[in-house]
Here is the input.
Amino acid sequence: MKIIVAIVNNDDSAIVSSALTQDGFFVTKLSTTGGFLMVGNTTLLIGTDDNKIDRVKEILHKYSSTHKQHVPSSASFGRGLHKDGVSEEVTVNGATFFVLNVEEFGKL
Ligand code: 2BA
Here is the structure.
């Protein structure tokens, strides 16, 4: 068994989690904040069998969207003061994911 930790944009989180649950996956949503932009995003925890990882990735890819975002001045805290005053844009990926091994899984 694996657990997938997937960080998605807040705007996509409802459709991504509903597509996952409709496909039979169990999902936990966490409200999180990106350390760079300091804006809210959503982290999904999806525990599933090894052979279903590709299906989860397909759904993440299908329902989450990449976009460009202007870097607010508050993000300078995450970059050091040398970037102060420089206006820039970053590409925020639809989903960033990690796949971790699960040692034990249970429900009591
Ligand atoms: P944020 O940390 O708010 O980052 C938003 C976007 O800003 C990133 O998009 C990337 O384009 C840029 N960025 C982030 N850190 C940067 C840095 N140190 N230098 C230059 N540009 C930087 P994504 O890479 O698509 O990341 C989207 C969100 O996913 C991130 O939001 C963060 O919450 C999470 N994330 C991405 N990679 C991660 C990692 N390796 N570990 C933990 N969380 C990660």
Summary: Helices lie at 10-22, 53-63.
